[in-house]
């Protein structure tokens, strides 16, 4: 199999795009795909200061590198959630990444708030972790004058999340699955998902061809995600399913209106009297 662009030995045959590419031509092709998504859906602007949230996994590593290569103004943020040795190993990876791609890295530690994810009961771990990440990303971005937060969510992430919620009869979330979410309050920083049309395999191939450091470890707390497995299976049988699905979501009408309140403890935006993060601090903090 030969590379369609330069005739060297191809390392990947991308059936969906009907193209085989070599190690040198694939990264350029990948970057052109991301560039096209950003332009078509107005996901980011060149004059925005972008805070890129990196976990050390292939998706967010690919995100940081592709945004840097496309000429965006970015810094990275890693949140150390204090998950046993796992969080430390991921932190080492993003520190190495920061050197390799020459992008500044900011690190926040949940332990500075008096607790870690290891202090949370097993059955509440994933929701506490999600709450802490969203809260800290938003607050850090706002206080450091970033215009937008970019995350490495993939088409499989968004599709599996949407299907799970639709099956659960929960439609309020559909609005949150767009590639760019504008702010609904001055305390909330807009969010961008520049990789929303990308598949995990495409991100993997990008970090491998560029030999970027990344972690292959999954979170020790993460349960097996059946919805993800189902989504992989649908994609196997129907190539392009994920991309069609996430593009379709963009047109979903706003179905639920949010009622904005401010937390009585910290003043961040919430839908009740005390925000979900302060409830975590109250319950678990040793300070
Ligand atoms: P996840 O919620 O683990 O599926 O991750 C979704 C996205 O959130 C990743 O692509 C990253 O952009 C971001 N993210 C996840 N974990 C962290 C972390 N510990 N620190 C900073 N960003 C993270
Ligand atoms: Zn080539």
Distance between the termini: 61 Å
Order of strands, widest sheet = 5-4-3-6-8-7
- Helix content percent band: 40-55%
**Which value, in Å, is the CA radius of gyration?**
19 Å
Shape: globular
Distinct ligands: adenosine monophosphate, zinc ion
**Count of separate DSSP helical elements:** 9
* Poorly predicted regions: none
Strand percentage, roughly? 5-15%
Main sheet overview:
6 strands, mixed
CATH class value: Alpha Beta
The tally of structural domains comes to 1
Classify the secondary structure makeup into a structural class.
alpha/beta
The tally of beta strands, per DSSP, is: 10
Q: What sequence of helices (H) and strands (E) makes up the elements? A: EEHEHEHEHEHEEHHHEEH
Oligomer description: single chain
Overall CATH architecture: 3-Layer(aba) Sandwich
* CATH fold-level assignment: Rossmann fold
CATH superfamily: HUPs
Mean pLDDT over the full residue set:
93
Description:
The protein is an alpha/beta fold. It has a single domain, classed as HUPs (Rossmann fold). 40% of the residues lie in helices and 12% in strands. It has helices at 25-40, 58-69, 86-101, 125-143, 155-167, 200-209, 226-237, 241-249, 276-284, and strands at 12-14, 19-21, 49-53, 73-80, 105-109, 148-150, 180-181, 191-192, 261-262, 269-270. A six-stranded mixed beta sheet has the order 5-4-3-6-8-7, sandwiched between helices. A two-stranded antiparallel ribbon has the order 1-2. The protein has a two-stranded antiparallel sheet with strand order 9-10. A hairpin with a 4-residue loop joins strand 1 (12-14) and strand 2 (19-21). The longest helix has 19 residues, at 125-143. It is globular and about 60 Å long. The structure holds adenosine monophosphate (AMP) and zinc ion. Adenosine monophosphate is lined by residues 53-55, 59-60, 77-79, 81, 133, 151-153, 157. Residues 3, 5-6, 8, 21-22, 24-25 line the site of zinc ion (ZN).
